Amino acid sequence: MRKYIYVIIALVSFSISAQEKGYWICWNFTVDSQNEAEELVSALDDLMESEAMSQFPLVITLGEIMFRNSNAPTTHQLCFIGSNADSFAMWGSGPPTTAEGKLVNKIFQDYAVIESTNMGSPLIFDPTKLGYEYASVWSIDVSNIPAYAKSVQEFISETKDSFDGVFELHESISGGEDYVSHYFVARSNNLTDWLKGREAVFNSGAALKFINSSQKSATTINNFAARLLRIYN
User: Fold this and answer.
1) pTM for this one?
2) Is the dihedral of CA 165, 207, 22, 115 positive or negative?
3) CATH class of domain segment(s) 130-220
């Protein structure tokens, strides 16, 4: 089965112009029921509030997939975001061997089916917009990165007064779906605000201009939408 890569972009407060480059790793997984999802959220809450995680170097986000196509089985996503490469020095060591860590590990083993994992990096983003709940994500095959980035920057500038949210651009580094090189993200407070913002952007003409200007440099592969459930650290 073809697996789609979901990226709910939750960002740490670091500058794109800084020398250090940020990265994220996301696990895309499926649980069978709402009860299983609630157990996982509760266990993660307890783990992240424990002393063992007080010095954890990564921001962790948990999201729920709201809209997806029939080829996309993933229900949730767990992402780990670091401000630089050193943040991932202990990657792969697993949760702590405390009671809270063992419970999270057990719930994942019992309930979750990992569909895919991938790694990427933010390119254009506003780190002050971390709290936005709703996100729509487009997986993009970019053939001309400078041209596409210019189109994105112009689009962001032209919609700053019409969209109550933020637009972002991220690169896919490893584990991404075939032909996907980047992710374009539109985030807002909730679904209602996102839809109203979409209407305003299209009515202003900025959306059509962006679509026309980016067609030669990028092709959309797929799209999904998600709701942010938790941000830890």
Assistant:
1) 0.86
2) positive
3) alpha beta
